[in-house]
Amino acid sequence: MHKIPMSNPIAELDGDEMTRILWQMIKDTLLVPFVELNTEYYDLSLPNRDATGDQITRDAAEAIRRLHVGVKCATITPNQKRMEEYNLRQMWKSPNGTIRAALDGTVFRAPIVTKRITPHVSNWKKPITIARHAYGDVYRDVEYRVPCPGTAKLVFEGDDGTSWSEPVFRFEGSGVLQGMHNRDDSIRSFARACFAFALDLKQDLWFSAKDTISKRYDGTFRDIFAEVYENEYREAFEKAGITYFYTLIDDAVARVMRSEGGFVWALKNYDGDVMSDMVSAAFGSLAMMTSVLVSPDGNFEYEAAHGTITRHYYRWQKGEATSSNPVATIFAWSGALRKRGELDDNQPLIRFGDSLEQAVLDTIDDGVMTGDLAQLCGCEGVETQVFLDAVAQKLGNLLRS
Ligand code: NAP
Ligand code: MG
After folding, report:
1. What gap in Å lies between CA 340 and CA 327, rounded to an integer?
2. N or C terminus of the chain with fewer C-beta within 10 Å?
3. Closest residue by CA, ligand 1 atom 6
4. DSSP code of 221?
5. Where are the alpha helices (DSSP H) in 264-383?
6. Is it the case that residue 375 has pLDDT exceeding 90?
7. What are the angstrom distances between the C-alpha of 19 and each of 6, 41, 50, 176, 374?
8. How many CA atoms lie within 13 A of 373 on its CB side?
9. Cβ distance 91 to 130 under 8 Å?
10. Strand order of the sheet with strand 300-304?
11. Is residue 1 pLDDT above 80, yes or no?
12. Cα distance between residue 367 and residue 382, in whole Å
């Protein structure tokens, strides 16, 4: 079969452990046989981040900005245990955090829904897309362990001489203290990304925060969303027959549980972190969740929402066959290649992305799936390579038809 050409490359960010193994299997089985794969390769494995002083991660973020499309494998975020395991020079920061900060993006996460697997929440009929603000709050906080009695204050010193100070708490003993921030421009681009994404999907947009308690902080989020909606998106939303609505986070949680799905739910950084795991678990598995980072200036990074599946990797190292689910990583590739096709007006590449996803869904519908999914529908799971071969078979048929 004639391979599909790619006129421009995408940034390819390789990663760690089991997902690194899956990465190569996916390329060998589903991509290279069908596409003249054109990528700029960045090895973000922990040993290489350590060897390059993490320069490789900054280079990769720059490449996504330059090429507008990237695809990323899961990577280890080091902790003390990893420091020892990999004999690291430094406890490198989360690559995802570095890339998010460089692209100032919003992360959209959506479950991959198949006919075979029914969500644990029985009234959820359509996917719920979580839009997570990828900047600030507790992820960029300053924390202090208060050792003794004393007074904590919040202080601001403006460059123009403005000064403001307010007591936070008078400690009579030890305790903890935390300072957080966010920026209007980051919140505004988050809001724009959410409105644009909802419009693209033709789905309602919900936004929730805790503005009754956090009147200034969360109130600012609510106000900026309202202002962006009124000034920039109301008309387009009404024309598309979709709505925007703001509600308190606790009210939103209750409504989400009773809903049938099919909307975009925008959340602050921490809320988005927590709620995306809840949504993915309810729809079946973290391995069935796509994740795309969209920056306000039109750059896209596709990845799987799960980690490096360490436990499977340790088994794989011992020579045991594993049944790790490659679906989210395949969808990262299909999303990135389709986006490359859209930006370059490369119809065959767009069709390839669509066909690859269709082939995955058809394979699962036929009852061929990895152990994590098999468990959910009471059938027998297959090894990863067996699943990939079944997908490749269907993909070939779809592309030839
Ligand atoms: P994880 O890799 O997502 O795995 C947690 C468990 O979920 C696995 O042990 C497995 O359960 C199940 N699982 C996740 N993905 C699966 C898949 N594709 N197929 C089958 N089962 C799957 O999370 P973790 O163990 O907490 O983290 C491992 C490493 O990943 C950490 O070093 C962390 O820093 C990193 N991480 C990276 C990213 C990222 O790069 N985006 C995100 C999160 C975590 P069973 O063992 O029960 O089968
Ligand atoms: Mg998380």
Report:
1. 20
2. C
3. 309
4. H
5. 269-282, 310-317, 327-344, 347-365, 371-377
6. no
7. 25, 16, 19, 37, 20
8. 33
9. no
10. 39-43, 10-14, 69-72, 300-304, 289-294, 106-111, 128-133, 263-267, 205-209, 244-248
11. no
12. 10
- Residue having the nearest C-alpha atom to atom 7 of ligand 1: 309
What is the per-residue pLDDT across 44-101, written as a single tens digit (0 to 9) for each?
999 999 999 999 999 999 999 999 999 999 999 999 999 999 999 999 999 998 998 8
Ligand 1 atom at minimal distance to the Cα of residue 75: 40
Pocket-forming residues, ligand 1, beta carbon under 6 Å: 74-77, 96, 286-287, 303, 306-311, 324-325, 372
Place of tokens 């799960």: 306
How far is Cα 129 from Cα 138, in angstroms, rounded to an integer?
Answer: 22
Does the model's pTM come out above 0.85? yes
Ligand 2 centroid to residue 241 C-alpha, Å: 33
Kindly give the distance from the C-alpha atom of residue 66 to the centroid of ligand 2, in angstroms, as a whole number.
28
81: enclosing H helix or E strand: helix 80-85
Which of 29, 17, 182, 23 is CA-nearest to residue 86?
A: 17
- Helices (DSSP H) in 202-248: which residue ranges? 217-228, 234-240
Q: Which ligand has the shortest distance to the CA of 302? A: 1
Q: Are strands 69-72 and 300-304 parallel, antiparallel or unpaired?
A: parallel
Pick the atom of ligand 1 nearest to 19's CA: 18
Mean pLDDT of 123-151: 93
What distance in angstroms lies between residue 259's CA and the mean position of ligand 1's atoms? 29
| Residue identifier of the C-alpha nearest atom 24 of ligand 1 | 307
CB 332 within 8 A of CB 304: yes
Instruction: Tell me which residue of 354, 324, 319 sits closest to 339, measured CA to CA.
Output: 354
Element (H, E) at 264: strand 263-267
Task: Report how far ligand 2's centroid is from the alpha carbon of 308 (Å).
Answer: 13
> From the CA atom positions of the chain, what is the Rg in Å?
22
The tokens for 137 are 């709050």
Neighbouring-strand partners of residue 108: 131, 292
